[in-house]
Amino acid sequence: MRTFVLRARAAPTDGKTLLASVGSEVHVEILAHALMNAIFVAQSHRPDVVIYLVLESTPDYSRTIRFEADVMRDIGGFDERALLGRIARALDASAGMGKEETRAVEAGVSVQTISFERLVQRLAADHALYVMDRKGLPIHEQVFDENPCFLLTDHIPMPKNTLRGLERLGAKKLTLGSRMLFASQCIVLIHHELDRR
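The chain above was modelled as a monomer; its predicted structure follows.
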């Protein structure tokens, strides 16, 4: 199983606001691109892939949307508009949820009111954690453990105190080179490296 977690610190947790933010400095398009590149391949989808999108611009609780490729059914296309629509639908389904609740949205899609830090703590119990960092070990040199979980962020860098917390959980730093890439590009390169092996 390959797991990806994308922390979107500027992404709103209201469906209408999310859709209205397309093309703005919030860069919600990154969510759709990451989802597309994590799950889909030409004329199919990748088996054994889970991606969590953690949206944090909220008046109450972060929203974590989980997409499980093996269980998902037709989501109405894989273009940016369709994928953002599915994300907005999950946000709409989360209305009124209390802290750390989970709600099913549709086959293979659920939403939780859980923070990035709490999610990663839970994943650390049965996943090997890898965080993207330009000062990390080059990905082609890394020996991957079973159930790798890759931690990514949107255009807002991961806070230093979060990185320290991830290190305490055993997260290993990985680099894909000296140039900063979009999270969705990192996902493609990670898949390529693991496929190659």
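The radius of gyration is 16 Å.
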